[in-house]
TrEMBL record:
InterPro entries: GreA/GreB_C_sf, TF_GreA/GreB_CS, Tscrpt_elong_fac_GreA, Tscrpt_elong_fac_GreA/B, Tscrpt_elong_fac_GreA/B_C, Tscrpt_elong_fac_GreA/B_fam, Tscrpt_elong_fac_GreA/B_N, Tscrpt_elong_fac_GreA/B_N_sf. This is Transcription elongation factor GreA. The keyword Protein biosynthesis applies. Keywords: DNA-binding, Elongation factor, Protein biosynthesis, Transcription, Transcription regulation. PANTHER family: TRANSCRIPTION ELONGATION FACTOR GREA. Pfam families: GreA_GreB, GreA_GreB_N. Belongs to the GreA/GreB family. The gene is greA. It comes from Alkalicaulis satelles. The keyword Glycoprotein does not apply.
């Protein structure tokens, strides 16, 4: 059973989603199915079929979340430090072609959100940054071609 690395914040978010699905969404869809059954013929009842489809999605997501939480390896990034890039690090890089700076926090797959500066540990840029230090230059295969980034700063925020 392979462990899934995640921050405490990511673990909490998955746990809250699971709780919401079990306590709010599941009872609501059961109620919707019950109401749709009261309308009669189920073979031509679109509300019933939509509610059953929603129920299937909810149950699938509950199983997925329970599996991820069971395999979670929560990493306390407040106890990490050092000059090399690892899981949980906040890294500031500069694109060597455009001189544009960007800051990324390396997080678990389920926590990734590029808009808020969080990139997945399995993303190409994160894989290129791992085990590098301030001043190192990394090359990343991007859709538009190879991009070069220089690491300006490694922080543990």
């Amino acid at each position: 059973m392979q462990k899934i690395p995640m921050t405490g914040e990511g673990h909490k978010a998955l746990d809250e989603e699971l709780r919401h699905l079990k306590t709010v969404e599941r009872p609501a869809v059961i109620q919707a199915i019950s109401e749709a059954r009261d309308h009669g013929d189920l073979s031509e009842n679109a509300e019933y079929h939509a509610a059953k489809e929603r129920q299937g999605w909810i149950e699938g997501r509950v199983q997925e979340l329970e599996d991820k939480l069971a395999r979670a390896q929560v990493i306390d990034i407040t106890k990490l430090s050092g000059d090399t890039v690892k899981f949980g690090a906040t890294v500031t890089v500069v694109d060597e072609d455009t001189d544009a700076e960007a800051t990324y926090k390396i997080v678990g797959d389920d926590e990734a959100d590029v808009k808020s500066g969080k990139i997945s540990i399995s993303s190409p840029i994160a894989r290129a940054l791992i085990n590098k230090e301030t001043g190192d230059v990394v090359e990343v295969a991007a859709p538009g071609g190879v991009k070069s980034y220089e690491i300006l700063k490694v922080e543990w925020v």
